[in-house]
Specification:
The protein folds into two domains: 3-241, TIM Barrel, CATH 3.20.20.60; 246-272. Helices cover 44% and strands 13% of the residues. The chain contains twelve helices and eight strands. The protein has an eight-stranded parallel beta barrel, surrounded by seven helices. Helix 9 (166-182) runs parallel beside helix 10 (194-203). It is globular, with a radius of gyration of 20 Å. The N and C termini lie far apart (51 Å). The structure holds 3-methyl-2-oxobutanoic acid. 3-methyl-2-oxobutanoic acid is lined by residues 30, 49, 51-53, 91, 188, 190, 211, 221, 223.
Length: 272
């Protein structure tokens, strides 16, 4: 099939498995609103994650914990409306799946039914096995998330690299094998040593998507506001900034204010 045709073929979980098998890297970014999702999908991204990082970058919270299921569904609806090619994955937010598999199922069904998204993502391994299994049994594709799992930030205490010690690395490997075995279609590996991420990526057949996990995962994800340089105060080592939208937007707004104050906007041509 030609590349042009491939560009317009919808990305499915099955297609992601093929990409891993053929060594084609998977691109993933977060999105939370219609306008940005339309641009990113049009550029050809493979996966759009409606991340609970919306809590940080959209609402200004310090952690991902405050965002609710209703908020996530609202963001997901906007993203789904914009997308014609990417697979849309939605984070199940903190407090709506951890304790109880029935709640996990109810939350995931609400996300799928009310937003039209294609899959959900949940953080953790063995601790949330029953929740993930129950959701998978309902036919909902699940992406796992291991390593630094921001919903557990108060347990970790810091955002530093996870699984540097042997015991935690072994647990991460066994969690990855478990998530594969129960039927997850992919796993995000966040902020772990690149050698461990490479090891896990070789160990399992489902694709791994890294963030701060080196170059030997099957794909990469970044938070859109960070890679576009909209956020200014978050500059971890793993982040590559592809644009400086903070400056572009700031300059444009200053220019606009100057024109308004100086009576230079609108011009005759811009008036009726
Ligand atoms: O919510 C989010 O943005 C995420 C990514 C960091 C993977 O989970």
């Amino acid at each position: 099939m030609s590349t042009a045709k491939n560009q317009f073929k919808r990305i499915t979980t099955h297609r992601l498995q093929e990409m891993k098998a053929t060594g084609e890297k998977i691109s993933m970014l977060t999105a939370y609103d219609y306008s940005m999702a339309k641009i990113i999908d049009g550029a050809g991204i493979d996966i759009l994650l409606v991340g609970d990082s919306a809590s940080n970058v959209m609402a200004g919270n310090e952690t991902t914990l405050p965002i609710t299921l209703d908020h996530m569904i609202w963001h997901a609806q906007a993203v789904v409306r914009a997308v014609s090619r990417a697979l849309v994955v939605v984070d199940v937010p903190f407090g709506s799946y951890q304790g109880n598999s029935s709640e996990a199922l109810r939350s995931s069904i609400r996300i799928m039914k009310e937003s039209g998204a294609h899959a959900v993502k949940m953080e953790g391994g063995l601790e949330v096995k029953e929740s993930i299994e129950r959701v998978l049994r309902a036919g909902i594709p699940v992406m796992g998330h291991l390593g630094l799992t921001p919903q557990s930030i108060y347990k970790f205490g810091t955002y530093t690299v996870r699984a540097k010690e042997k015991e935690e690395a072994e647990k991460l490997k066994s969690d990855a094998l478990l998530l594969e075995e129960i039927g997850c279609f992919s796993i995000v590996l966040e902020k772990i040593p690149s050698s461990l991420a490479a090891n896990v990526s070789n160990l399992i057949r489902i694709p791994t998507i890294g963030i701060g996990a080196g170059n030997r995962t099957d794909g990469q994800v970044l938070v859109m506001h960070d890679m576009l340089g909209i956020t200014q105060d978050f500059k971890p080592r793993f982040l590559r900034q592809y644009a400086d939208l903070n400056k572009v937007i700031g300059d444009a707004v200053e220019h606009y204010i100057k024109d308004v104050k100086g009576g230079e906007f609108p011009s005759e041509e811009e008036s009726y």
